[in-house]
Write a structure and sequence with these properties.
With 265 residues, this protein is α/β, with parallel strands linked by helices. The strands form 2 sheets. A 5-stranded mixed beta sheet has the order 1-3-6-4-5, with helices on one face. It has a two-stranded antiparallel ribbon with strand order 2-7. The relative contact order is 0.18.
Length: 265
C-alpha cells in the first residue's frame, strides 16, 4: 500500500513533479490530471485543479503569481470557504471570463491552530469530515454541479487546500472512477506543503499567538482512509454517500467524466 506522499501510485515521480504547480505565494496548488480512472480512461491534465486560498493572488507582490494563474486558462473557481474568511483574506482577483462560486461546505467553524497537542489528527478530523458531509449537502452538491458544467479548466479551494478541498477532491475522483488508494495518495500530497502552510498561518496572526496543535497543516494518508471507511460504513461507499445524500445520478457522473476524462496515452 503506497504511503509516500512524494510519489503518486501507478504513475511515478515524474507525474508527481508535474502535478505541483509552482507559485510564490500559493503552496498547495495541484493538477489532478493523470490519475487512472473509469473504463481505462485517465483524468485529463490541465482541466481540474485543487488549491489553497486564491486570495493570496491579491496584492502588488503577487503579480507574478497572477500571471502564472492566468496562463493556466482557468475559467471556473469554486471557493469552499466561509464568507467571513473571504472578507478577511480576499478572494481570487476578478478577471474577464472567470466564473466564481462561493459554496461554503462547512457550517460549524472551529480553530484548528488552537487545539491542544493531545488531539489526534486522524480521530479529530475524520469526525469533522463526517460533520461537513452531513451539514454541507446542499453546497457540496452545488460544487459538483458547477465542476460538471465548467466551460474550461476549473479549480476548487479552501484556505489550506487540505480539509474542505480534500473532501471535494475525494468525491470528484470517486465519481470519475479513481481507485481509493490513489485518492488517499492524492490527499497525502498536501504533506509536501505543510511547512509553508504553517508559515502562512504565522504570518497572518499576531506575533504573541501560539500554534498549539502539532497537527495543523498535516494530511496523513490514514485520515483519508478513515474518511473513506466512514463512508463505507454509513453509506456503502463514498459513491453511495454521493447518491443517497447528494442526489448524484448517472447524468451528473456522465457529465463529470465527459468533462474531465480522456483516453490514456
Amino acid at each position: 500500500m503506497p504511503t509516500n506522499p512524494q510519489m503518486d501510485p501507478q504513475i511515478g515521480a515524474a507525474a508527481t513533479a508535474r502535478r505541483h504547480v509552482a507559485f510564490d505565494r500559493l503552496h498547495n496548488f495541484r493538477d489532478l490530471g493523470g490519475y487512472p480512472a473509469a473504463d481505462g480512461l485517465v483524468v485529463a491534465w490541465g482541466r481540474l485543479y485543487r488549491a489553497d486560498s486564491l486570495g493570496k493572488l491579491r496584492g502588488d507582490d503577487a503579480s507574478a503569481d497572477r500571471e502564472r494563474f492566468a496562463a493556466l486558462g482557468i475559467r471556473t473557481v469554486v471557493d469552499l470557504r466561509y464568507p467571513w474568511e473571504i472578507a478577511k483574506r480576499g478572494r481570487v482577483p476578478e478577471q474577464d471570463g472567470l466564473d466564481y462560486h462561493n459554496l461554503s461546505i462547512e457550517h460549524r467553524p472551529y480553530d484548528q491552530a488552537a487545539l491542544g497537542p493531545d488531539v489526534d489528527v486522524e480521530t479529530f478530523l475524520v469526525e469533522k469530515y463526517a460533520e461537513v458531509a452531513a451539514d454541507g449537502v446542499k453546497e457540496i452538491r452545488g460544487a459538483l454541479d458547477v465542476l460538471a458544467a465548467a466551460a474550461g479548466p476549473a479549480v476548487f479551494h479552501c484556505t489550506s487546500g487540505k480539509d474542505r478541498t480534500g473532501i471535494i477532491g475525494a468525491l470528484v475522483l470517486t465519481l470519475l472512477g479513481v481507485d481509493d488508494e490513489v485518492i488517499v495518495a492524492d490527499f497525502a500530497l498536501t504533506g509536501l506543503a505543510t511547512e509553508r502552510l504553517v508559515a502562512d498561518w504565522r504570518s497572518w496572526v499576531p506575533a504573541d499567538r501560539e500554534l498549539t496543535w502539532p497537527g495543523y497543516g498535516r494530511a496523513p494518508a490514514g485520515l483519508m482512509r478513515r474518511f473513506l471507511a466512514w463512508a463505507e460504513a454509513e453509506h456503502g461507499s463514498l459513491r453511495g454517500y454521493a447518491e443517497a445524500q447528494l442526489g448524484v445520478d448517472d447524468a451528473l457522473v456522465a457529465a463529470l467524466r465527459t468533462r474531465y476524462l480522456v483516453a490514456a496515452g
